[in-house]
Sequence to fold (212 residues):
Amino acid sequence: MEIVNTAFRLFAEQGYANVQMKDIAIACDISKSLLQHYFPKKIVLLSTMLNELTLSAFIYSNEQLTMLSSYQRTMIQMSFVLRMLDENPTMEHFIQDIFESPELTTEMVLVTLDWLEAIGVEGEAAMIRYALNFALSGGMAVFFKRKILRASVGMIAENIDQAFYLLLGENTEKIDQIYLSTAKYNTDYYYQQFITYLHKHATLDLSTEIKI
Fold:
C-alpha cells in the first residue's frame, strides 16, 4: 500500500491533474516502469484509492448503526461524509477530482449502490442507481460551490437525501420525519466516532488528510 498511500498524498495535496506517474515513482523511490507494472495508468491508482476510501467510510455504519433503518443510516452517512470533507480541504480536493471524472463518479456510485442494497434500501437496482447518481451529482456540484452559494453543509446533505428518496417514490413528509429522527446522531460525539473508525479501519493513511 506504500505506492497507493504516496500517490494519495500527492493527489490530495497537488490535485490529480497536476501529478504525473513519474512524480509518484520519484516519491516512492522506484522506477516508473516498476510503478506501471503494478498500476499501468494513473487512473487505476485513483480508482484503487476511491474503492478503499468508500468501503472504509461505510464501516462505522455497518458496525455501529445497525439498529437504525436504512433511511436513517444513509442520511447520517451523508451528513458525516460532507462534514468530513468540509473540515478537511485536502480530502475535499481529492473527492472533487473524483467527481470531475465521469468514469470515477460511476465507480463511486456502483460501490455505494452495493452498500445501499446490503443495508436494505428498497427498489430496483437500476432505479436506485439512477436516483443515487442524480442526487450525488447535483448535490456535490452545490457542495463544491457552497461558499459562493452560501449553502450550509447540513442543508446540502438534507437536499441530497431528499432528492434520492423522492426519486425512489417516498413522500416529502415521511422523508422529513426520518431526517428529524437522525438529529441526535448529527452531533460532535457521533461524528468523532465516525472519524475514529475511518482512521482505524482505512487501508489508506489518512493521518495528514483527516484531522481527529
User: Anything to note?
Assistant: Residues 125-144 form the longest helix (20 residues). The chain has a mean pLDDT of 90. The chain is about 75% helix and 0% strand. The chain has two domains: 1-39, 49-199.
